[in-house]
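pipeline stage [seq->struct] | target=Beta-amylase | organism=Populus alba x Populus x berolinensis | residues=562
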Amino acid sequence: MATDIQKLIGTSEEDDDEEMDMDVKEEDDEDEENGGKNIAAQIMAGVGGGMASNSSDSQFQHQQQFQEQVTTPAGGARRSRPLEEKERTKLRERHRRAITARILAGLRRHGNYNLRVRADINDVIAALAREAGWVVLPDGTTFPSRSQQGSRPAGGTSAAVTSSSSHLVSQQTPPASLRGVSPGYQTSVEYNTCRMKGVFMPNPSPYDLSSSTQPQIPAVVGEGGEQTESDLHIGGSMDTINDKQIVDIPPIPKLPERDFAGTPFIPVYVMLPLGVVNMKCELVDPDDLLKQLKVLKSANVDGIMVDCWWGIVEAHTPQEYNWSGYSRLFQMVRELKLKLQAVMSFHECGGNVGDDVCIPLPHWVAEIGRSNPDIFFTDREGRRNPECLSWGIDKERVLRGRTAVEVYFDYMRSFRAEFDEFFTDGIISMVEVGLGPCGELRYPSCPVKHGWRYPGIGEFQCYDQYLLKSLKKTAEARGHPFWARGPDNAGFYNSQPHETGFFCDGGDYDGYYGRFFLNWYTRILIDHGDRVLSLAKLAFEGTQIAVKVFIGGTRQPVMLLN
């Protein structure tokens, strides 16, 4: 009888820790084995009672119960499960798998977790541990990375994830040593997955200047299982290694100073006030500005960003550029060993949200505008918007013998020649090119000066003679000359879409004319961006170029060219 009982209770308890993706049939078998264990426990209690009483009748009764319950040849007890309960179990399993699939899909899509197709809870816990800066070996041994060794109490041991990955001990988030470093990291260490059989090892960052963050060689187990000197760095967190592991550690690449290409870190630049340079192209308060720049330097920012206003530099005479105020500012930045991001601002400052100064377009441009107001964007009622030049004159020589694109190109070439040494020394790291109102690639469809208020839909800005000429030419090329007009039912600045015949559901926007007009209107915008950026690439060859676009009601800086 003891042998039979041992067969009943000999099932390992590790069956309860099976994979997340096991089949429903395996789950049913596990339930049956667990039921066998419960029956075996009851039999043991009964047999034990019979032995204690030394009663032959009681012992015979328990043996008879044992024979009735044990029905399988292998000695495992099997209990009868109703069909409905099995169906419910299958439904629960399918529901659990569906939830798991959604969780894993979300982690892969939105969290950039590199999880295999049939990932389980072990893979998820390991990925979360690696993201928190822990090192997870293939056998499940887990310990803090080098960057977290200095924050551990002396003589303490690190908690680890067991090989079954059933528990993950929470850790305190170390304080960030630098502003702008991703939360959860003590230092700005670049975490890359090395070719070490899945071992996650960090690389040093050029921002780690203290001796406590110098690169350390991780522990390596050799052929004979002996630990090298570097075991001191992880002693106490990795007590034993069951199998021999031969780890080939690739050389750690040394990043050039402040070179974050290919890393998860984002350089921090601070935008200077819009009016840091006045209309005479002089610094407003050089002493106070220098103090503020020193404060930024002490905060370990990478550099500053500043608008270079077209209305200040080329204010009075075409092709006469005054860069004196910006030259002094750039010299301060170089002395403090900061970097620069310059903005080519070809628009007017003032009248928009956040504008605290007024910097108009150059005076000579305003004089041209008084005699030829069609150089500015115009709405259906004929109101002009002098915030920036109309894209209709990109190829029209109406600016003292130059086109608008040529004016922009000459300005950018002058900037490149004036500050050539700053480009050569890498002080100017990026140039942002203005492409429209507020420097953004968009139409000035929602001007506050014309009464627009959120959430009005705005108005089309295509009624200057140059854009109307382009629209007419395009309509005639399509064989529909009567399409050479703007929509007459698109509402006003503060209208709602459903209140207009053009934008409402099933409105004219989805008709033949509506599609033609919107395609032309969009093409004008795209062509303008292509022209200006192609010339910017020539003027700033070898320098990163950025623009601002207007997406979904928010301004988004987008890197375009290198």
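stage status: PASS
auto-comment: The chain is about 35% helix and 10% strand. Residues 138 and 191 are 17 Å apart (CA to CA).
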